[in-house]
Amino acid sequence: xxxxxxxxxxxxxxxxxxxxxxxxxxxxxxxxxxxxxxxxxxxxxxxxxxxxxxxxxxxxxxxxxxxxxxxxxxxxxxxxxxxxxxxxxxxxxxxxxxxxxxxxxxxxxxxxxxxxxxxxxxxxxxxxxxxxxxxxxxxxxxxxxxxxxxxxxxxxxxxxxxxxxxxxxxxxxxxxxxxxxxxxxxxxxxxxxxxxxxxxxxx
Length: 203
Ligand code: HEC
Ligand code: HEC
Hints:
Blueprint: H1 5-14, H2 36-50, H3 53-56, E1 67-68, E2 77-78, H4 135-143, H5 153-162, H6 164-169, H7 183-195
Antiparallel strand pairs: 1-2
Helix pairs in contact: 2-7, 5-7
The structure holds heme C (2 copies).
């Protein structure tokens, strides 16, 4: 669906819960049209997003414990109430994430309420480990199909565009800091990094 960025911003301010139609229009730059230096600059912004609490709190790796971190939580600590995601990454073995992170259509207007995004809330796969990880580590994980869900960079961008959890990260409701930049800028940075040949910083 074709949506202008302005219409998208208006949709965000007027509707509390996002629809799949709120996806932005993306166009990858031609391969080779982005220099390695520009690609590395784009990557540094992608890393700022990936390591932000709104993303990293769910990308906790081998640990099946979601994190509560970022200024709104004070000290970084594992999710309260001893929540474990289990092998299902959805908590079905103990208490399902959706018990609290429901998919209902209610507005997210209460600080400290469990985030709700209109789709199943769950922990990211273990190989997508970002919490407390370096730029080099996340970069190498994300460019390798063996650890990124078998996706090209274009497919990663499409995935971000249609995943409602991602849309939430930039509109997380009161009391939470949104991820930096915007979903559109993040997708463009990812695509620029891809067009530059997915360069990773050296340690
Ligand atoms: C509620 C938990 C949650 C949050 C918050 C979250 N993610 Fe994820 N993420 C997931 C899950 C679950 C998957 C696996 C989905 C799949 O592969 O279809 C995933 C997969 C991904 C992938 C696919 C690549 C890979 O390595 O598996 C990317 C890219 C990604 N997330 C980016 C982000 C970004 C950027 C943010 C913040 C703006 C974010 N995520 C926030 C749960 C989350
Ligand atoms: C008993 C209710 C409950 C269950 C079950 C639950 N959560 Fe939560 N979760 C919450 C509440 C409440 C918050 C917000 C706390 C706050 O803002 O102080 C939260 C916040 C989070 C956050 C932080 C979001 C952010 O960046 O601000 C993540 C990540 C998270 N939950 C993941 C999960 C996952 C994954 C599961 C299932 C394995 C799960 N939760 C199960 C109640 C729950």
